[in-house]
Write a structure and sequence with these properties.
Elements: E1 13-16, E2 19-22, H1 23-27, E3 31-37, H2 43-54, H3 56-61, E4 64-70, H4 74-88, E5 96-98, H5 103-107, E6 132-136, E7 142-147, H6 156-171, E8 174-175, E9 186-188, H7 194-200, E10 206-209, E11 212-215
Parallel strand pairs: 3-4, 4-5
Antiparallel strand pairs: 1-2, 3-6, 6-7, 8-9, 9-11, 10-11
Amino acid sequence: MALQIGDTAPDFEAQTTDGKIRFHDWLGDSWAVLFSHPKDFTPVCTTELGYMARIKPEFDRRGVKIIGLSVDPVDRHSQWAEDIKETQGFAPNYPMIGDTDLSISKAWGMLPASASGDVSKRTPNDNQTVRNVFVIGPDKKIKLILVYPMSTGRNFDEVLRVIDSLQLTAKHKVSTPAQWKQGEDVIISGSVSDDEAKKQYPSGWKSPKPYIRIVPQPRG
C-alpha cells in the first residue's frame, strides 16, 4: 500500500555506501530526505545525484540528512559515484542504500508487493516507480511525497523550499502561500482564532478576505 503524508516512515535495516544502518536509528531526531532511483548508471539520475551532492550544505544548514536508494548493490553504487564525479563535478557525499531484495521499495510503496526477480535483470522500466522523494520529520512521520517520471529530472531547490515551509509551519501556527520563499509573508493558520492571533500579532494583519490573514514570517 502506498504511503501517505502523516504515516510513520517504515523502518528497515540496509547496506549502504556508508555501512549498515537501521533507518530510524540513522534518522535520530533529525529531518531527512530519502530519494530513490530505479537503476544505477541511468542518465537523469546521474545528474540528480550530482546536484544533490553539490547542494548538500544547504540541507546540512537546515539540519536535514540525505539518503539515496537504488535496487542495485552497494558496490555498483560506488562504481557509479565515479561516473557522477566525472560528469557532474560532485560525487555523492551521502549514503546510498542497496535495496537488492526490493524490500524497502515495496515497504515504501514504490514497487508492488508482487515485484520479484534478480535485480541485475530488472530494467529501469521495471523499476520506473522508484523515483520518489520523501521528506521525513524528526517524529519519523512522512511530511512530503513527490513522485517523478523517468524523463523528468527532480527539482531539489523545490525540495529545499518545501523543507523551509515544513520547518517553519511545524514551529509556528502559520501556513505558506503559493510560490512562498524564505523571508516572505505567511498566512495565519485557520485553527488560530482572531483573539489568539491578536495576542501573537498585536500589530494586526492584512486581510483581503476574512479568511485570509497575512503577516510577516515569524522569526526564531
